[in-house]
Amino acid sequence: MVSLDALSDEERDKLNQYQTITQIQDLEEALGQLLEFDWNLERAIQHVYENATQEKDREELEQEVATTVPPAATARSATTTAPNTTRKRPSLLLTILLWPFGMAWNITWSILSLASRIIMARPAITQKKRDPRVLALEFIESFEQKYGSHHIEFFRGGYSQALEKARKDLKFMLVLLHSDDHDDTEAFCRDTLTSDRLVHFVRDKNILVWAGNVRETEAHKVSYTLQASTYPFIALIALQGSSTPKM
After folding, report:
1. Which residues does 142 contact at the CB level (< 8 Å), separation at least 6?
2. Which stretches within 69-195 are classed as H helix?
3. Same CATH topology for 9-63 and 132-237?
4. What distance in Å separates the CA atoms of residue 15 and residue 36, rounded to the nearest whole number?
5. How crowded is residue 231: how many other Cβ atoms within 10 Å of its Cβ?
6. Domain extents for the chain?
7. Cα 137–221–51 angle (5° rounding)?
8. Which of 37, 124, 136, 230 could form a disulfide with 43 if both were Cys (CB 3.0 to 4.6 A apart)?
9. DSSP per-residue string spanning 7-41
């Protein structure tokens, strides 16, 4: 393991930022990731995003498969492994009488399976990798079309770019995440983000603001990193010089 005393001030600064943003407390693991990417902070953070997304997708797929296997499949499996016994074939009359119940069960099971898929479905996000600056400009354009041009100033770039600028300029960074599927989103955007009081406060305190919609890939990954559990979501991040960053 590399000794902390052997690290330069810049490397220690990147290590502190990496641990704060990714929530990785294991010093050896954090150092290993940064060394693997040759101290490229943005690439190392992106690697954590991708792993978190893939792991969650795998867990959701396993859960969906487990909940959609019909009980009849288990019964058939048990039948094939049971000892070979002589069974009496049901009469034609009994088969006719039970047919409506079997049909009703099949229809009910199909409806329940479809409902489980709908309930477990995640909000659709843009899977294709796109330029973070383009996404930022599209977010601002969409916001202004809905709520007007009077609002707090949003950073016109990607999340990693915003982090780097906040660190270099010794600024606090305000992260805003919202989802169109949540009822509070419209009121929050219309009444809070456009209020004169907040606009003046952010401007006077020289706070850098990065915002995104979790339907887009980058904001979706940021929500995993910052452990957002409800929306709208707000986080204030301090990345000041070589001191320990705080959120």
Report:
1. 213
2. 71-81, 92-120, 132-147, 159-168, 185-187
3. no
4. 13
5. 20
6. 9-63, 132-237
7. 140
8. 37
9. S-HHHHHHHHHHHHHH----HHHHHHHHHHTTT-H
d(CA 92, CA 107): 23
pLDDT at position 85 is 46
Predicted pLDDT at 232: 92
Q: Which of the residues in the chain have pLDDT under 50?
A: 65, 69, 71-83, 85-87, 118-126, 242-245
Tell the residue number behind the tokens 């006077």, with chain if given.
Answer: 204
Report d(CA 66, CA 46) in Å as an integer. 31
Q: State residue 149's pLDDT score.
A: 93
Distance CA 40, CA 33 (A): 10
Which residues lie across from 238 on neighbouring strands? 172, 246
Reading the block at residue 113, the tokens are 């399976």
Report the predicted TM-score, pTM, of the whole model to 2 decimal places: 0.50
Q: Give the domain 132-237 fold.
A: Glutaredoxin (3.40.30)
Residue linked to tokens 């990065």? 210
What gap in Å lies between CA 214 and CA 235, rounded to an integer? 15
Q: Which two tokens stand for residue 192?
A: 């809070």
Residue with tokens 């907040």: 198
25, two tokens: 């407390």
